[in-house]
Amino acid sequence: MENLINIGVRSIFIDNMIFAYFLGMCSFLAISKKVKTAFGLGIAVIFVIGVTVPINWIIQNYVLTEGSLAWLGEDFAKIDISFLQFIVFISVIAAITQLTEMAVEKFSPALYGTLGIFLPLIAVNCSVLGAALFMVGRPYNLAEATIFGLGSGTGWMLAIVALAGVREKMKYSNVPAPLRGLGITFILVGLMSLGFLSFLGFTL
Amino acid sequence: MSTEAAVAEEVKEKKSEPLLSKKNRKLISNPLDIDNPVTVQILGVCSALAVTTQMKPAFVMSLGLTIVTACSNVAISALRNTIPSRIRIIVQLAIVSLWVIMVDQILKAYVYDVSKQLSVFVGLIITNCIVMGRLEAYAMANKPWPSFLDGMGNGLGYGMILMILAFVRELFGAGSLFGFKVFATLGIPYQGNGLLLLPAGACILLGIIIWVQRSINGYRESH
Prior knowledge:
Chain A is an all-alpha fold. Chain A has eight helices and no strands. Chain B has one domain (21-213). A two-stranded antiparallel sheet of chain B has the order 1-2. Chain B is globular and about 60 Å long. In chain B, 44% of the residues are buried. Classes of the chains: A mainly alpha, B mainly alpha.
């Protein structure tokens, strides 16, 4: 249990997808103008990462790695199809994203309208594939992988909501006209990530 | 309408618009400037931050991305009327991965050294949002030839930003260009600025590039 909490806290703060690894930047920058939409996208990303990481864990450990097909019988024990990793992972992610898109379209048409192209782009949100690949590189079991997925998603949402909060206040400041919008946002993200670097010193 | 008539009509339509008409030239030139994928459309930022610590990977990445974007734009554009919208994301990603695997194989066959250095980055093209962003925004609604130009233009616009970023980061962060030690050769003692090699430094640098670009072309964001 303690271990699970550790992994959760680590993935939210210390290994934050945005500020430590800079994954999933595109939608992070584009959809962070308002806290409300940022929150909506954050929930969608938590859902997608939280579902795809465990699914990919099961696929990785029972299908892809060498010897993992042993449950099918003796003959399959030596098959190694780990070179299919990328395409299998991305297909799972694409399918879950499509599912999320349909759900959002049905239950919240307003949010669907604001997210626009960035909803299908969750499929190529590097933080989703990134989380799946990090999970492969670390010796997690299924429960740990699930917590790691949910934690990474939460960290991503935390980052986008924080940035959206700052940007809402930025409206009232007098930024030079050419720097307004995306330019100042990039500089903000740089400074925020320098702040998050201080978490790197913590060991749990 | 019989197929022959349809073909004839298509030929006629093509004739009425020259291959590099003003509109088509805009498809190439706009992404370099007022419609840049990185600094205006906010696509492909992750890789722009990740591969630009050195110029060589940045160069190969932009080249690979240009080819993949252009080719998958053509493929999706040709198939656009037959893809059911419910499963379009999977279809798009399948086509993109196909092209990425082909680029990877070609690199392995002809320039094995480079491909060995860059294998991770080539795989990263699949998750580069420029490719899928252009498929969604342009190729799904336009004909193959303009889609091809659109893909080329966006690839070049991305490459341009990447090269500027990599130039500044490698020169002032590590004191070299394409691995060639510039400051050491010139005999200037230069320590190297570690901040530029961090992603945070790249973020701030990109913000400044956007500032300069928008001061020149007058593009403003509406709030």
